[in-house]
Amino acid sequence: MELEALRSIYEGDESFRELSPVSFQYRIGESGDPKAFLIEISWTETYPQTPPIISMNAFFNNTISSAVKQSILAKLQEAVEVNLGTAMTYTLFEYAKDNKEQFMENHHPVNSTTSISNIISVETPSIAPSSKKKDKKEQLSKAQKRKLADKTDHKGELPRGWNWVDVVKHLSKTGSKDDD
Asked: Would the pTM of this model clear 0.70, i.e. be above it?
């Protein structure tokens, strides 16, 4: 019955998402609001006699510090204890909406540039060894150097038309097929 009630109450509400018949997400605040957060509530088999599982591990909440998340979850757990034995998903979502400012008063967006710089510094060493391998491949034997010197002029450039023979061969092969 609670499932049907939630579906009818939140029908057309973009903040509400039914992940499964026993798991729901609700975004508290507008999507562009820096103090917006996402709550996920999952019912256990013995719900509502036992508390639902409340989570804030969604990627949407990655800028919220773990201390603020823990404080929000603690306040929601208090509301769960008061409503234990009754259908409470709607009550918890509304409680979070009504107390959003109080929940997020200590929120300071976590700077994600530190994690990006850590990722970059981790990737940089992995690029360096591959460039060393390329240097080893570029070393030529004496015979290879001689062949290259014979092909190039005194400036190290290949003469004009050095690959024309390959082009002519290619065109003669493809041209004969077109003539048939």
From this structure: no
